[in-house]
Amino acid sequence: MSHDQFLGNATNAVDAKNRVSVPAGFRDTIERRTKEKWLLLGPHEREPCLVGYDLHRPGRLQAIIDRRFGDDFGPERDDYARAAFGSPEKLPLDDNGRIILPPILKDVGGIEGLALFVGAGDFFEVWNPVVFLDAKGETTPLGRIVRKQLDARK
Amino acid sequence: MSHDQFLGNATNAVDAKNRVSVPAGFRDTIERRTKEKWLLLGPHEREPCLVGYDLHRPGRLQAIIDRRFGDDFGPERDDYARAAFGSPEKLPLDDNGRIILPPILKDVGGIEGLALFVGAGDFFEVWNPVVFLDAKGETTPLGRIVRKQLDARK
DNA sequence: TTTTTACCCACGAATCTCCATTGAAACCCA
DNA sequence: TGGGTTTCAATGGAGATTCGTGGGTAAAAA
Asked: Mean of the per-residue pLDDT values for chain B?
């Protein structure tokens, strides 16, 4: 069953070639929303993790910029555009539903052998599960789930 | 129009002949937008870097100028038009996806051995990565990425 | 001539494509 | 209801292809 929002969570392996399976439900959501086998992945603004979007994101950002700045080209507009478009990468989903994590994103996102995908409605986050437990705690419902998934992986 | 924007970033080498590879994703965006293997590159108005566009940019700029100044043909309009159309160079992409950086642009843009390409939606910027870190800081998501790219190049 | 600009080709590393295996959940049917 | 079968998501590996890069050479310009 799929939906228009990213919801649920999954912990998948990152192999030696930096490939990761995007959870099937997230893939369905992406394709339902955009009809495309592409996604955007970039560093999170505040958290030690990555953020994933579908390809509608850039268009919406451009609309926001145009509405907010109009024909006024100034430094704020440049800074905004650079931050919005410059840091996320556009990644293709292969036939098996995997992406390859660019090493730089893997690095800045703190990802290692396991990637925790967490749905968040319009977008989703990708965490190193260990970092997640560290940052968000193990006593929340999600924390307990992540703990179990982590233990199940040896 | 609002789809197919310049997204992501890359750090490429500038060789002794002033050749630089334009990141493959940017080349694709350019060709999808214009069906041409050409791009425009000029100094940035406000930042110590260069700006790159596809060949549709001049037409859109003309529209903006007409809308903004209307029938008012005065010195302001001339100044604006001169800045918009006078400085950028039209450069061909060779078979390997490279351009040759004109020495003047290289100089004006402060580019040396490495060129940092940053997507910004309708256009992209080309920075000396060291200058970028200096001007924009290393604590933003993009700053952290650039720092790592730079370190990875020794 | 010197200097620049446009084509060639070449190579290694990173990336993409395709096929195989595993394991778990869903399904079917006597 | 239980047992077997099918389906599909996740994962692993090998080969082909692309990308970024360096070098050479010929045409064009200064």
From this structure: 91
* B62 reaches A (C-beta below 8 A): no
pLDDT at A3: 66
Contact A32, A2 (CB under 8 A): yes
Instruction: Name the one residue in this structure whose structure tokens are 């233990």.
Output: A151
Alpha carbon separation from B148 to A43, A48, A106, B11 (Å, rounded): 13, 15, 11, 10
Please give the Cα distance from A117 to A125 (Å, whole number): 6
Please, what is the angle between helix A141-152 and helix A129-136, to 10°?
A: 150
Please name the residue ranges forming H helices in A13-140: 24-34, 56-69, 75-86, 103-108, 129-136
Strand C nucleotides, any atom under 7 Å from protein beta carbons: they are 5-10, 15-20
Q: How confident is the model at residue B2 (pLDDT cuts 50, 70, 90)?
A: very low
pLDDT tens track of chain A, all 154 residues?
Answer: 456 899 999 999 999 999 999 999 999 999 999 999 999 999 999 999 999 999 999 999 999 999 999 877 788 999 999 999 999 999 999 999 999 999 999 999 999 999 999 999 999 999 999 999 999 999 999 999 999 999 988 6
CA distance A27 to A23: 6
Q: Give me the CA A100–C1' D27 separation in Å, rounded.
A: 43
CA B81 to C1' D15, whole Å: 54
> Which residues of chain B does A75 touch, with a Cβ-Cβ cutoff of 8 Å?
46-47
Q: Verify whether the Cβ–Cβ distance A84 to B142 is below 8 Å.
A: no
Tell me the whole-structure pTM to 2 decimals: 0.93
Please judge whether B2 and A59 are an interchain contact, meaning their C-beta atoms are less than 8 angstroms apart.
yes
Q: How far is A150 from chain B (nearest CA, A)?
A: 27
Q: What are phi and psi of B80, to 5 degrees?
A: -65, -45
Instruction: Answer whether A64 touches B (CB < 8 Å).
Output: no
The structure tokens 């977008």 sit at A123
Using a CB–CB cutoff of 8 Å, tell me whether B24 touches chain A. Answer: no
